[in-house]
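batch job 7 of whatever, protein = AraC-like protein
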Amino acid sequence: MDGVKKRYTFSVSENTFPLFIESIGYNPREQDFTRPEGYPYYHWLQTLAGEGRFHFGGHEWVLSLGKGILLLPYTPHSYFTVGSQWTTVYVTFGGAAVPSILNGLGIHFSAVYEEKEPLPFSKIVFEMLQMVERDSEFSRLESSAHLYYFLIMLKQYGKINNQSSLSSHYDRIRPLVEWLEAEVAQPISLDEMAAYARMSPQYLNQIFQNAFGISPYSFLIQLRIRKAKEILVSNPEIPLKNVAKLVGFRDLSHFVATFRKKEGITPKKYRDLHT
């Protein structure tokens, strides 16, 4: 790969596949980023040269050669270059099938990975980049196939750093997270979340901070916004007031204000841009 920055993005509204790439790229000089609200899709970032410091979930990791990080959607994080240069590759992805695929592979939480074999992850990303460069109409089916292969390789050849502490936090609240996803349309208080998880509100907050770097309430709001974005794009005929109710907002004005605060644009503008 030459020293030229490469970035390709794909229209999410056109992706009906259960597994799709949202963006993919190569950055010879990675930039510093702070994302207090996280990124709306699954995000893989891997070091090819140099190193960077990555912060999420109250922890800091050094991403040196061969190390990468997989972040779940809306995981608050920041990262910074260490030294004069940090070279990376990345891919962001989504799709209705991603949670079940990752669960099947035993990948349940954001984590730092280290390759057990020479660069199999970055090789797959490079192959996808080359396919995009050769064909601007990069096949969505091909991209889905390559992405699935990438996730298989991540499971087969990836060694998770500090797995026990991160996974233990997530495992404690996984049933609650699944319940929140199923009941997102309902009004849910912190006390109700704590009761479902069978722990005190204070302890629940601590577990969420350790697992995701945010409070349970912030997690629920992000979940509501993510579900709203899915409905806005996949069902453009549904009125905004109905979308608001489907994701747990009791009035349209609160939905619009919260959506604008999180996404920087109104729900209508988001729908217009993606449909």
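notes: The domain at 164-274 is CATH 1.10.10.60 (Arc Repressor Mutant, subunit A).
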